């Protein structure tokens, strides 16, 4: 196994909502709950789950755009929560983000070249000539021409804008790229081009990816391992092939049953969704009210993420008891 690049240890994040005129008491919203997760050097770890399950929050905690409520994120053996201003600036060079919306993530008042060059200016890397050369070289790598360098974001298509965002993330030669739904705002015809570009750049630059998406087809195409997230918790973690060929957790099975197939001859077991999502089930399994085959123990205790016989991790009492449907 490769070296551990990011080690997430017992990380939780809570948000406090202030009371309203009708509700004076403050509410605590747990977005991420007690997560243990490792990202290995050189891999693409896919993070998948429904909207609102905490994927983007976890990504922001890893990038330290937000601070954890509990636990810590370790990068190459160092606790990023303890970084001072200088150490955090250096960390920013190693960890970069590709954002979901290529329309709002670019400064409309700056040209493409200036947007890509800005990180070099902030970190004072090189001089004006070498910076310009690096920008043009990187633009060519992501499929943009030198003639487009002085154009502004509104003069580009959505796919081209995302290429600018990718170039901006790569200009500092980071070790980890956090891609948060990088193709969900693009036309389907453009998505495959951007995904293949990201795979090529991973090989060229020796990158590690945390790839966040709710689209299981995208995750399947990009990831080496996949972490399935539900209500702020990791419920299954396994290799790409294991997740798609033999999902263990009922929630993973539910997600996969909803993926449309292009093959009319292919039959897929349909999983019926029952019950509602409940955020306040503290004692039992968080998936209890949507599970088709709960056990009595599921109402009494939350399952923990534990190793299985086939070298994956799953948080489900059904797996522990050998009573999977």
Question: Could you name the key traits of this structure?
Answer:
325 residues; alpha/beta; eight-stranded mixed β-sheet; four-stranded antiparallel β-sheet; 10 helices; 22% strand; globular
Proportion of beta-strand residues? 15-25%
Q: How many distinct beta strands?
A: 12
Largest sheet: 8 strands, mixed
Helix content: 25-40%
Helix-strand sequence: EEEHEEHEHHHEHEHEEHHEEH
Strand line-up of the largest beta sheet: 6-7-8-3-9-10-12-11
The span between the termini is 32 Å
List segments where confidence is low: pLDDT < 50 over at least 5 consecutive residues.
Answer: none
Mean pLDDT: 89
Number of separate helices = 10
Structure classification = alpha/beta
Tell me the radius of gyration.
Answer: 21 Å
Shape: globular
Structural description of this entry:
The protein has 10 helices and 12 strands. It is an alpha/beta fold and 325 residues long. The strands form 2 sheets. An 8-stranded mixed sheet has the order 6-7-8-3-9-10-12-11, with helices on both faces. Strands 2-1-4-5 form a 4-stranded antiparallel sheet, with helices on one face. The mean pLDDT is 89.
């Amino acid at each position: 196994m490769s070296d551990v690049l990011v080690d997430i240890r017992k990380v939780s994040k809570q948000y406090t909502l202030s009371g309203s005129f009708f509700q004076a008491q403050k509410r605590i919203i747990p977005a991420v709950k007690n997560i243990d997760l490792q990202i290995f050097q050189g891999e693409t770890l896919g993070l998948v789950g429904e909207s609102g399950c905490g994927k983007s929050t976890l990504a922001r905690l890893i990038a330290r755009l937000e601070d954890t409520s509990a636990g810590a994120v370790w990068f190459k053996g160092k606790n990023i929560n303890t970084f001072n201003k200088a150490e955090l600036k250096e960390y920013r060079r190693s960890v970069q983000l590709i954002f979901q919306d290529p329309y709002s993530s670019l400064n409309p008042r700056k040209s493409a070249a200036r947007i890509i060059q800005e990180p070099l200016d902030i970190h004072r890397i090189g001089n004006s000539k070498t910076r310009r050369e690096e920008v043009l070289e990187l633009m060519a790598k992501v499929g943009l021409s030198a003639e487009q360098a002085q154009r502004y974001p509104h003069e580009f298509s959505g796919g081209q804008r995302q290429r600018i965002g990718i170039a901006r993330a790569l200009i500092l030669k980071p070790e980890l790229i956090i891609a948060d739904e990088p193709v969900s705002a693009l036309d389907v015809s453009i998505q495959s081009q951007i995904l293949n570009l990201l795979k090529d750049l991973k090989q060229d630059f020796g990158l590690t990816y945390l790839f966040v998406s709710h689209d299981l087809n995208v995750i399947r195409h990009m990831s080496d391992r996949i972490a399935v997230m539900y209500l702020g918790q990791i419920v299954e973690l396994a290799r790409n092939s294991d997740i798609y060929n033999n999902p263990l957790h009922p929630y993973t099975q539910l997600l996969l049953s909803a993926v449309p197939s292009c093959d009319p001859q292919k039959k897929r077991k349909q999983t019926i969704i029952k019950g509602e999502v409940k955020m306040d089930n503290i004692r039992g399994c968080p998936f209890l009210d949507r599970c088709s085959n709960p056990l009595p123990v599921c109402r009494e205790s939350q399952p923990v993420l534990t190793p299985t016989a086939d070298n994956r991790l799953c948080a489900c009492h059904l797996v522990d008891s050998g009573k999977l449907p």
